[in-house]
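Async update (no meeting this week)

Hi team, since we skipped the sync, here's where things stand on the single-chain job. The sequence we agreed to prioritize is pasted below, unchanged from the tracker. I ran it this morning and attached the output directly underneath so nobody has to dig for it. Comments welcome in thread, and please keep replies under the output.
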Amino acid sequence: MTRRFQIGAVSLAMAAAALLAVGTTVSASEAQTSRAALAKVLPNEKPTSVQPTPIDGLFQVEIGPQVMYMTGDGRYLIDGAIVDLETRENLAEKAQNEARQRAIEAMGEDQMIVFEAPDAEHEITVFTDIDCGYCRKLHQQVEGYAEEGISVRYLFYPRSGIDTPSYEKAVSVWCADDQHQAMTEAKNGNSIPSKTCDNPVQRHMELGELMGIRGTPAIILENGQLVPGFVEPKRLAQVLEQ
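Output:
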């Protein structure tokens, strides 16, 4: 069971019950009432926003990079596709992508290791594991991405967890005097000096968990779309241009 489902289907169901308990009615104050009720039952998962949707009585609830929907009376929770049949647009997917991208940008580039393309036209954010085979394959193509005008921004996601060899390698890369060289050496399977310092590796992992990341590499495009797995540079450039 993913963390996203746990928050969405269990905790928000509790929030819905709380809304019923306070006796909300369909009114202009529904969003404010929903936020207050959610804050009571989810003290550690404060909603980023609660806002109306094009569907009367349905509200979009964001918790960081996660998006769910709740009826104004607090009775029903919707966690899935919402498609406008006139435009064929998946409103839920669009909202999810936007929330994901806001969460990425809130992390800040100063908390990432960035391999910047000289003439960058696009950028991707990649959750990576030093010891992941396809993560290493992606990094071996980092110059290829640069040639396609794609900058690569790394966030660490050691799948083995905190205080494991992969986690310690990620910390050592972050704390290295030359992060780029250390990243490349580690990705090539070479030993790098073990170092510790104040680092964002655990925060990277927490963000990845909120996004439901389960495998690496996990690529986040500029619009917040999640692309799992390795995509070779020319193909990724085509995707970004679409």
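Quick observations from my side:
The two ends are 33 Å apart (CA to CA).
Residues 1-28 have pLDDT under 50 and may be disordered.
Reply here if anything looks off.
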